Amino acid sequence: MSQVTAFSFDDKIRELKEELRGLEEYPDEQFLQIIKDVGFECTLCGKCCTRNFNDHAFLLDDDAEIIRSLDESALVPAPYYEFCDQNGEFYVSGYAIRANRDGTCHFLEKGRCRIYERRPQICRIYPYMLHREEDDEGVFDWRQISGLNRHGSYHASIGDEECRQIAGEVREYENGFLKQELAFLEAIRGHFEKQGLKHSPMAYDRQMRLFERGGKVRVNVFYKGGFVPAATTKKDY
């Protein structure tokens, strides 16, 4: 986990709103053609359900609610905590699915998903995405595909109707993700102001050292408009 540097809440909120507008304005036909050209087809290899291929599966609130109803122990605060106050408490914008010790998803059993029919949105749209992200060369641009040629098969024939369905689901997830991030920033800004708190890089570093040594840290998870307290250790990931 890496430290988040200090920044203005207003600036970050403005950036996310601009990205949300960019998502809304992204041409449908361009994305549809990318989906058609990629032609991803699942081969049931299960690789996308492992930490070797995907760092974590971030859950939107509605999906976190479903997972909670199925198996509450499967929820963990999403990694890469965004903030830490001067009292040493972390804050993160949502939940993720717990991984097993071998790096496989909590719900992967004998290479198959135990909750396939109720799997989260992020699992349903994979490997497609539609957001701005920095690549390995530092180029910040639109990313539409994840894990290209690392699993599954490609260049299958996908009909126009299926392409439109995929594009719609991807947009829905990315829109929900950005709105959840915006709500998180606005909530934590208000929480910090009301409680006289602030993001403390010194406390962040201190608590991360404790975490890396296997110690227990306090994390406040943004969920349904509020913060849910949790206590985690490195073993939870």
TrEMBL record:
InterPro entries (alphabetical): Puta_zinc/iron-chelating_dom
Name of this chain's protein: Fe-S-cluster oxidoreductase
